[in-house]
Design goal:
The structure is a homodimer. By secondary structure, chain A is an alpha/beta fold. Helices cover 36% and strands 21% of the residues of chain A. Chain A has a five-stranded mixed β-sheet with strand order 3-2-1-4-8. A five-stranded mixed β-sheet of chain A has the order 11-10-9-12-13, sandwiched between helices. The first copy, chain A, is globular, with a radius of gyration of 20 Å. At the A-B interface, α7 of A face α7 of B.
Chain lengths: 314, 314
């Protein structure tokens, strides 16, 4: 039996047909047009679903589930998006609307970070576990919590905002309005900020660094320069790792999950990222050495985590 | 049907007979003697249970549950305390031993902070909720998490160490070995440290403060002096509130529980403490104003939370 997963982003809508092995059989996408009324966005989602089904000879009514991973606060009990920052959703009954468009009754919704965590728990880095946490290191720091084989998002569906744990009181300003959030130190954007600050500093004091030679600073600038032996880049990376390890140790001490999976752009660094993080986490975690330890893994599903997680919603 | 709750501390063992209304009918206690072998501690727990039952004409075999709230990592599936810091427990099968002493088969165990949170959720400040968090502001900062009407402590039973969330990277040293843990800023001990530092500072610069007049600095020194109009004491209190509010906002952003209950010595400040905390929490919490909000409440059961929570273990 097939399922469909919808990854609704601020820029693109990606829709995938997912088979019983939790693999994406076929994927389609279209620009979101986030400035449009929500109803028009839903019509485009429906069209993509219909196209996918038609091309693969699947009757939409036979789908086990059509799941939507959406930004914002997604009430998975009512199918209403209470609020989204980057889409025109205010108490928007997206599940009902898509059900009417498609003539089905099994549309489910979930916050996008939570859906990605669910995808990794079902079919990715945390497959086979009951309790896991996914941390996405992208433009922001996203979090998704799986407890007892269920997505946990609090009584109001707004929880699991793990990027908005303050790890430095009165620290760097965060997009959420707080100061010192984990996101302000461990997102790809934060890494870019740290890199730029170091380049400026090197320029000011006349210190040579390979990072200055790059036409554009990205999340990889410091990592690449460090691997080429640049000491200033190493300092940026070490600082980044310090904060990331502090935040991940917090997650261990709070949840002691079987697995923490790391996704998002920065996780492209792969095992070397984990190797850099583990010494601090192992040293600082609570109960270390006495009981089994949380494993830190790179997420497996990449950009497909949202689609697969949405398709597999219960 | 009666139950028994055992609150096993580093200093005292308190045992209570609990009725169906979740009230303590009678309580007994004895010094723990934490330096003794665990088996002797268990014998004393058994004696207290027998005495309570005898005095109240209850047959121990008719008890619905005998629950033990213990320090350390308590495996509630096996009844084994994996490790405790202040008691001689290393993989100690405390439930089995107590069952043999009493000839019963229904001894359950839980970490003490988790049991207190369970007590508040069953019969105290969070009664009627499914998702709540208890924070104990005492010598340390303890945490207990209730999710979906169950205690959550991670796959290895060592989770919910909410006092060991770093809120200030490279900050004040914590007893756990990390730097900048919430506990190092929001425990009663931290409040005492902040008070002493301010007294020393005032002495150095020749500033008058009522706090200097106290024979002994306690967690109440700054609070009492502040209420008497002392400006230096107000500065200490404001600083303490800043960190406590930051940590509590973190808990909201992570869990969005229905209720956070505050226990421990500092919570004796009562509603004025909550009034001082709320403006920051409401301003900084994620999703504020769009969805229902977490309530912050003073815990209701005081020192009995552990006994009641232990007695009510499932």
């Amino acid at each position: 039996m097939y399922r469909i997963g919808v990854d609704l982003g601020g820029t693109n809508i990606a829709v995938g047909l997912v088979n019983e092995e939790m693999q994406i059989v076929k994927k389609k996408s279209t620009p979101t047009g986030a400035e449009r009324p929500g109803e028009e966005i839903v019509k485009d989602i429906a069209a993509l679903c219909r196209d996918l089904c038609a091309e693969e000879n699947v009757d939409p009514k036979t789908l086990a589930c059509i799941g939507i991973a959406t930004p914002g606060i997604a009430n998975h009990d009512t199918g209403v998006v209470e609020y989204a920052n980057n889409l025109p959703f205010r108490k928007f009954p997206i599940a009902d609307l898509l059900e009417k468009e498609l003539g089905v009754e099994n549309v489910r919704i979930e916050n996008d970070a939570n859906a990605a965590a669910w995808g990794e728990a079902m079919a990715g880095a945390a497959k086979g576990t009951k309790n896991s946490v996914m941390i996405t290191l992208g433009t922001g720091v996203g979090g998704g919590i799986i407890i007892d084989n269920k997505i946990y998002s609090g009584f109001n569906y707004a929880g699991a905002e793990l990027g908005h744990i303050v790890i430095e009181v009165d620290g760097a300003p965060c997009s959420c309005g707080r100061k010192g959030c984990w996101e302000a130190y461990s997102s790809a954007s934060a890494l870019i900020r740290m890199t730029k600050e170091k380049i400026d500093y090197c320029r000011t004091v006349g210190r040579a660094t390979l990072m200055s030679d790059q036409p554009k600073v990205s999340g990889r600038t410091a990592c690449d320069a460090m691997r080429a032996g640049d000491s200033a880049a190493k300092e940026v990376y070490d600082e980044y790792i310090k904060y990331l390890a502090a935040g991940l140790t917090n997650i261990v001490n709070i949840f002691q999950p079987e697995v923490i999976s790391l996704g998002g752009g920065v996780s492209g660094e792969g095992q070397s990222l984990i190797d850099a993080l583990l010494p601090t986490i192992r040293k600082e975690q609570y109960g270390g050495g006495v009981v089994p330890q949380t494993e830190i893994r790179i997420a497996k599903l990449g950009n497909d985590a949202g689609i697969i997680g949405a398709a597999m919603l219960k």
